[in-house]
Every structure is written in structure tokens, then in C-alpha cells.
Amino acid sequence: MNLQEFLNANPIDDVTEDVVISPRFKDENGSPLKFTIKAMTEEEFEDIRKRSTQVGKKKVEFDSRKFNLHVAINNTINPDFKNADSIKKLGVSSPEEYVKRVLLAGELATLVQKITELSGFDVEMSELVEEAKN
């Protein structure tokens, strides 16, 4: 199989992965509960980046907290952070408030890291060089 055939057989519209983000999430048997995440497309990344950036008269401000929340909310399949019943059950009014209520700061950071890695970010150049050699 050449690269063109590989690309044709592997479009990016359904790249998902089950990941463990914290030892806190365990079922009744002590087994880890996994989050199902999906990769961001270039368009999704740009949309979230733009929504997290404010352009003022003299400076541009990037809100990394807002960026991380939107990455997690929009790219986590399970659990569904947009689930209206869950939002209502916890007495919050938005997916952003829900995430802040159910995830610790480090858990959110880990979740976002896993999503960005699945999306092709944070791949070390040395890993790519090593893989290319093989």
C-alpha cells in the first residue's frame, strides 16, 4: 500500500480512542472508566481557537481556559458534556459549568492533552524521525 492508498482508506472523520484520564474514575470492581474522545479536524481547531481569542485595539488575548473547555466539550463523545439531563441534575446551566463541576483541573488538562495528541499535536519530531527510519 502506498501513501495515497493509505490516505484514501483512512479519512480523519472518525478517529476516536478510549482513554483513562484519572485513577479517580473507577467502576464498582475497581476497573478504570474510560473516556471516548475524537480527534479535532483543522476546521474545528480553528473555530475553537478563534472563539478563544479576543482582539482588542492594542493587543490580542488568548483565553486558554476557554480553549481547553471547548476542546473537551466538543471532542469528548462519552461522557456527553452537553447532556441536558446531566447539566440540569447538577444544577448548572451550561456544558462549561458542568465540566468545571465534574472534572478536577488536572483531569481537564489530561483530557485536553489526550485529545490534542489524538488530533496530531504534541508528536515529538524525534519520534517521527525514528518511525521514518523503520
From TrEMBL:
Superkingdom assignment? Bacteria
Query: What InterPro entries does the database record attribute to this sequence?
Result: XkdN-like (IPR014986), XkdN-like_sf (IPR038559)
Q: What is this protein called?
A: XkdN-like protein
Q: Which organism is it from?
A: Paenibacillus oralis
Upper taxonomic lineage:
Bacteria, Bacillati, Bacillota, Bacilli, Bacillales
